[in-house]
Amino acid sequence: MDSIVYICYKIDNKKLNFENIECEKLSNGKIQMVIDGKIIRRKNPFRVTYKCFGCEALNTVNLNNFVSKLSKDNGLKSCRICSQQFSGKNIIEESDRKFSCMSNEYKSNYFKVYLSREEFELYRNRIVSIQRDKFSDLTGFEYYPHIQLNNQKYFLPYLMNTKQEVFELPKHVKFKCDGCGCDYGYVDLETFKNKLKLLCKDCVTVTKPLKICIYKNCEGEKVIYHTNFELKFIKFCNTNSIRVVNCSKGFELPDKNIVVKIVSNKDSSKSCDGVTIINPKNYMKTIKSLNKI
């Protein structure tokens, strides 16, 4: 455990204070960490910064990854920094040379998917973290849009830690929503491509224009709906000879004296202001109760 420099919380990088840390080998050969007598499970909030035995460079990984390294014979004797065959500068130069030799069609198609350096800089200040909060400060990183590492067959965009000259994949990117200001996650940077605003799921739903579609109820009257989930409810009403019509609050079932609102997410299922909320979670229970009224 001498290699551990410190342990911190993933969410805010606050260092964990502890007096004793041990590793226990289980009967299945795996290792579990025990901190101050408490077994650390796989679902834990910790990240470890440790010193590589090979090059003495500092590495930061999630605690689960560190424990996995301990299970291997050479786990801490080398790291990404000392196992990298060439310096960052040489990798960049060689990647640029190889990419320049590719056809114009290939390069054009490549940048239809991946961000150019200029595009990345437009989004940089809105990126909160990458790799599930492993790196939350990107001031020491430079973006390179087409890198080919070691025996890697394809080019991929990477962020390079300029101090250690280590390349990191910009995956599991968390950004600041331009709509509500919350932190929201995308799988990769490619999702940002051609977006003027970066919006979370809720803000996308609000700003997305609703489709206006028409379906006839059981009495042949036109009913306006916007989503497939609403259409599913209308068809249920038709099958069970329940008259459904539009109203200002959603849908009204005049014969049953009920007003319902259909939502696609799992909002509150409780009635409010005389309106029954129907969502995917309570749908089956609600439609069964309608048949009993």
Could you give the distance between the termini? 67 Å
The number of helical segments is 8
Number of domains: 3
Strand content: 25-35%
Task: Please tell me the overall pLDDT.
Answer: 86
Order of helices and strands: EEEEEEHHHHHEEEEEEHEEHEEEEH
The assigned structural class equals: alpha+beta
Low-pLDDT segments: none
Q: In order across it, which strands form the biggest sheet?
A: 15-16-17-18
Count of DSSP strands: 18
Largest pleated sheet: 4 strands, mixed
Shape: extended
> How helical, in percent, are the residues?
10-25%
**Rg computed from alpha carbons, rounded to a whole number of angstroms:** 27 Å
Query: In terms of quaternary structure, what is this?
Result: single chain
Structure, described:
The protein is of the alpha+beta class and 293 residues long. The chain folds into three domains: 4-83, no CATH class; 88-203, no CATH class; 213-292, no CATH class. The protein has eight helices and 18 strands. The chain has helices at residues 63-70, 80-83, 88-100, 104-113, 117-123, 201-207, 228-239, 283-292, and strands at 4-9, 21-25, 31-35, 38-39, 46-51, 58-62, 127-129, 141-147, 156-161, 166-168, 171-176, 183-188, 213-216, 222-225, 245-247, 250-253, 258-262, 275-278. Strands 15-16-17-18 form a four-stranded mixed β-sheet, with helices on one face. Strands 1-5-6 form a three-stranded antiparallel β-sheet. β15 and β16 (250-253) form a beta hairpin. The longest helix is centred in the first third of the chain and has 13 residues, at 88-100. The model has no long low-confidence stretch (mean pLDDT 86).
